[in-house]
Amino acid sequence: MRAWLTEARAYFEQEDEDEVGMALARARAAAQCIDATLQRAEAEALAVEAEARAVTAEKRVAEQVAATREVERERQTVEQGGH
Amino acid sequence: MRRLTHGVLMCAALASAAACGGPPRKSTEMVEYEAMRANTEAETVKERYPDLAREATAAYRSAEEALSEGEAEWVLHHTRVATLKWRSAVELTRAQDAHDSAVAAENRVKIAEDELKDAQRRHQVSVEGLEQARRIKALEAQVIRDEKAKRVNAVSQRMQEAMAYDAARHAPDALAKAQASLQAAQGAFNAGKLKDSDRLAESADADVLAVIAIAKPLFEAEKKERDLDARLRALLEQSAQVPGARGSIVQRGFVLTLRGTFAPGQADIAPDQMFAVDRVVELVKAFGEFKVAIEGHTDNQGRKDANMTMSQGRAQAVLSYLASKGVDVSRLSALGKGDAEPVADNRTKEGRERNRRVDVVFLR
User: Fold this and answer.
1) Residues 3-42 of B with CB under 8 A from A
2) CATH architecture label of B242-363
3) Contact B130 A39 (CB under 8 A)
4) Engineered SS bond to B200: which of A54, B97, B185, B189, CB 3.0-4.6 Å?
């Protein structure tokens, strides 16, 4: 895409109107594509970050639930006369 | 320069195809574009970004038209525009997917945070439940310990009771056994062996009870004897207040001997002896725990049956007087013994005077 942009810049330096029109159209398409690519990259980065936070949060829930189970087991043991 | 190179190559390809008489050959970029469009996500891309997809399609048709017209430069241009448009649509589709994933992940975060709060609340409840269970168990353990302690202490107290019965003297062997049992129970309790302490305390209790069973009757018999002796001594002391009477402690109790209470040949109390008999009444009332036997005696003068009748009458006269003064009759008995039990020689006047008497006997 950079190459195309460079190419487009070169077109601008010429005076042929058709060629300038072509270059502009492609430059716009390239810019649109770059913008879309950046959006995707940004969205994917956010998704990765959100996924990581989700995994972390879910892990904390799982740990908490496991800790509670442990406490419950301990309580049952105590009630049954252990310790 | 590069554009020219492309154009030349494309023209060469188109010319070659035309020369061969077949349809013009698609450029590599066109082939790549078509491959891209044939991808599995193409439908999704078209659905989500129809404008871009249409623009790409339109550009590509323009490229195909340019190809059929042999305009290589335009073929290249339109193909690239089509490719860029399509790629934009693909990137935006993927961005949308990523965004959706991020939103979904954020939702999971929120759900997890809510779940975490719930889990933390439940954990807190569980922790409190555990602490409560521990407190209850500790209390139960304390109650059990107190119960066991009570049992051991109860045996210990019973042992004190046994010692109070002078068990060391009355039941030394049984006492030694009980002390050893009690010591074992106390040792088990102090070592925290509560079940053992309970069993040993039970055994010790039985041993101590055995000690008490031996020592208590002996102790109480001794005590009764001591108390009785003390009362008899008190009787003896207080009997000094009865004028003309003589008291003595004997095997069967205490005998208060009255003389001169009756005029010779009479069975009525002489008026001048009333004062002495009233002191007897006081004594009998003060020592209410004793049964009292009133025994009349005569000397050997006269007929025996007459003496018997006289002595019985005199004993009865004393009994009646005591009863008239409020003494419970059920405590009293009167018996005439005539001259059968002399205490002195009937051949002398002094002897006969001594034999004429009434004995008020406080029976053991």
Assistant:
1) 3
2) 2-Layer Sandwich (3.30)
3) no
4) B185
